Amino acid sequence: MPRGLFITLEGLDGSGKTTQIKRLEDWLKKGGRQPVLARQPGGTPTGDRIRALLLDSRSGAMAPMAEMALMFADRAQAIAEVIEPALAAGRIVLCDRFTDSTEAYQGGGRELGSAPVLELHRLLCSNLQPDLTLLLLPSLESSLARARRRNLRTEAKTGQDENRFELEQEGFYRRVWEKYMEIAAREPRRVVRIEGDLTTDQVHEKIVAAVAARL
């Protein structure tokens, strides 16, 4: 059986990834395909527990290296439990964040650099690479405003606190943004940039075009 296709969505918090991954799932289903959805952190019983620890604002004093280690623990579990079995079965996997996020947030935002991130990915994730990465790049300001509004709504509705990264200052997010741009420049064949404050429909159209080209 041919191996499946591994597609990741990347971008700042509030860039619209969650909305777009659902729309892409619907589009693929209409075409007769049944994609497997994954997210990081989370998406497995172990990963969801790690996610709660990583994103809770009460974990604010976490050391950057500890944060990165937890991200990779979550990722290794997701690869073993969800991603690799689906790819081996010939399925399309749609993943909300992957190692590019760790390189951007911990390597860039936390200033740990790309080298330790890429080395841990090689060691712990068997250097698994997406076939296609869709990098959503609305303006920094609109992304952060949207993310903060979303998390406040979620906390009010469910009591679940996932605000830890949104509490960071603008300098942190500037470094994340710059690292994403560095990754895109380094891997232009894999990473498709979707830039600007576009409408939801405009972003979806660009995503569909990029995915259709790979299919």
Would you give an account of this structure?
57% of the residues lie in helices and 12% in strands. It is of the alpha/beta class. The protein has a single domain, classed as P-loop containing nucleotide triphosphate hydrolases (Rossmann fold, 3-Layer(aba) Sandwich), CATH 3.40.50.300. Strands 2-3-1-4-5 form a five-stranded parallel sheet, with helices on both faces. Helix 2 packs antiparallel against helix 3 (64-88), helix 3 (64-88) packs across helix 5 and helix 4 (99-109) runs antiparallel to helix 5. The protein is globular. The model has no long low-confidence stretch (mean pLDDT 90).
Helix content: 55-70%
First and last CA, distance: 16 Å
- Which geometry do the CA atoms define? globular
Helix-strand makeup class: alpha/beta
The whole-number mean of residue pLDDT values reads 90
CATH topology (level 3) name: Rossmann fold
Strand order, main sheet: write it out: 2-3-1-4-5
* Beta-strand segment tally: 5
Main sheet record:
5 strands, parallel
The total domain count is: 1
* CATH architecture type: 3-Layer(aba) Sandwich
Beta-strand share of residues:
5-15%
Q: What is the helix tally?
A: 8
| Radius of gyration using CA atoms only | 16 Å
Give me the strand/helix succession. Answer: EHEHHEHHEHHEH
Low-pLDDT residue intervals, each spanning 5 or more residues: none
